[in-house]
Amino acid sequence: MFASVFKWFVLATLTGAIVGLSTTVFLKALAWSIAIAEGRQAYFLLLPVAFVVSIVLIKRLAPDAEGHGTEKVIEAIHTKSGRIKAAVIPVKLVATIVTLACGGSAGKEGPCAQIGAGLASLFADLLRLSDHDRKKIVICGISAGFASVFGTPIAGAIFGVEVLFVGSMLYEVLLPSFIAGVTAYEISSGFGVQYFKHSVSVVPVFTETFFVEVALAGVFMGLCAFVMVETMRAGEKLANRLRVAPAVKGLIGGAALVALTFVFSRRFLGLGLDTIEAALKGVPVPWYAFAVKSVFTSITLNFGGSGGIVTPIFFVGAAAGTLYAHLTGLDPATFAAIGLVAVLAGAANTPIAAAIMALEMFGPALGPYAAVACVISFLMTGHRSVYPSQILAAAKSPSLQVHLGDQVERIQTEMEPAAMRRLAEWRRIVRRTRRQPPSS
Predict the structure, then answer these.
(1) CB under 8 Å to 413, separation ≥6 — which residues?
(2) Cα 138 to Cα 133: distance, rounded to the nearest angstrom
(3) Distance between alpha carbon 237 and the CA centroid of its chain, in Å?
(4) I need a labelling partner for 121 at 20 to 30 A (CA). Which of 37, 57, 180, 212 fits?
(5) What is the pLDDT of residue 437?
């Protein structure tokens, strides 16, 4: 056991250092390119060209770099023993920078996770590790990438081992994931990467009413996560139905985003960090913001753009939390923070990582309430995810009949016969009650 611990302490530390350095390079290059692009008033008019450039790079050099990177890494772990081609690393970096600099609605964690996992796979090749050890070290790459992007080493480590399966975690990779996540975070922060931390100043005193409001917020965030997942699916179906060349499809998607930007403003372009920070400070955002951001992200990632999906999820969650707070008369900053992590839990099926992220980003006062909302949101989305390659390891309800071991995209959910009988009986009782004449 000591030999195993020592082995993975060394391997995970080296992996974390490699990923921390690569994340630093990516984030600094991204920040520099965005600053140059946004200095020009109409930079988003280049979106059609950006999508075409991204498509050409990916199709010709590294097809596995398509879409949001974490999904491709999950697929590689489940189907290719974690093997990731070296060409993915530079192609994903360049395609994502081009997409985000020109205003594509995507995130930065997916590329970091895919670049980190790709470097981890090359590291495994160099050491001639077995397929089993390769998968473990690639999972460390996911954890390190997530941790070094958002500055949340513990949540990043948990995300890497939780995102692969719905309802299960790979405990054998827990120690190396923690080590890789902490190392990557320390490396990137040591090189000057700045992270967003925001302690929520107003957390109401616990009451039964407030606890119910938090639970209902979890239901609402789960529905918003459901909307985002289905919007991503609808965008994929629409893109697949267009029988045109990939480059033409990129031009169509880019032109659609340009048109939508003139309708809804530039708020929904790019990472959207200004809107996220404003919502967490209690500043009002448009009530429709969560839905519009979902549409922008779906078009970007399904019509040729490259990037991650977690940062848009943060935008959707913070905006949804603000909307819920205004509908119920609650503090918008508090529920923007809860919404940010709860929508992540529901859309990505990672309630534990999301709850820990609330502690790391917003402080311990909000943690218990955020955890409740995260778990409820996770249950509300059912067996769907923004990561279709996730493997279903446990049903979310005994009333639902599913086949365990399938990928989420292949899941066919039906009600258990006993649950259907109970529902039918309940409906008969309701109908009889309505037919009864009112008592005099």
Answers:
(1) 382, 383, 400, 401, 402
(2) 9
(3) 20
(4) 57
(5) 62
